[in-house]
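Lecture notes, continued. The same structure-token format from the folding unit now serves as the input rather than the output. Read the line below as a description of shape only.
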């Protein structure tokens, strides 16, 4: 378990498409552990592997309801709409209004290699979208309709 360095905007790794995980080996398990450590250290809601320089389709999320590990996640259903302030650990101190679906269902693999589905609403739906975007080299700034003034 280790805290990894979070890369910030300008690092080209954030613009790349990540490769799927084909086998869950010790390296992937260590990566998951390190991502959780890094997320909790940062105080953020979610972290995607490219944010620590690893181009794999892995994200971790915790909206204060427990750790969710997503391997090869994909959105299989979404509905509704929500607009709220959003930020990113790779763009510290910046928050902007982003419209996302209000309810999102993802399908992903867990660390045991099992496929599961999970539906989130509100913040969790937003986190699913935000983190999965990272795996395709997309960042929230491109979706911001209005920047929000905050103290950082
Ligand atoms: Ni982010």
């Amino acid at each position: 378990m280790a805290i990894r360095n979070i890369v910030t905007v300008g690092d080209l790794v954030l613009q790349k498409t990540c490769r799927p995980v084909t086998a869950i080996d010790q390296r992937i398990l260590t990566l998951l552990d390190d991502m959780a450590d890094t997320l909790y250290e940062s105080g953020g809601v979610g972290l995607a592997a490219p944010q620590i320089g690893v181009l794999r389709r892995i994200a971790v999320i915790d909206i204060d309801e427990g750790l969710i590990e997503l391997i090869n996640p994909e959105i299989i259903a979404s509905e509704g709409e929500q607009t709220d302030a959003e930020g990113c650990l790779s763009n510290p101190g910046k928050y902007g209004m982003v419209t996302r679906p209000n309810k999102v269902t993802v399908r992903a693999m867990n660390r045991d290699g099992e496929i599961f589905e999970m539906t989130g609403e509100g913040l969790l739906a937003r986190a699913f979208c935000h983190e999965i975007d990272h795996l395709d080299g997309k960042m929230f700034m491109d979706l911001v309709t209005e920047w929000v003034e905050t103290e950082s």
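Point for the exam: The helical segments are 26-42, 123-135.
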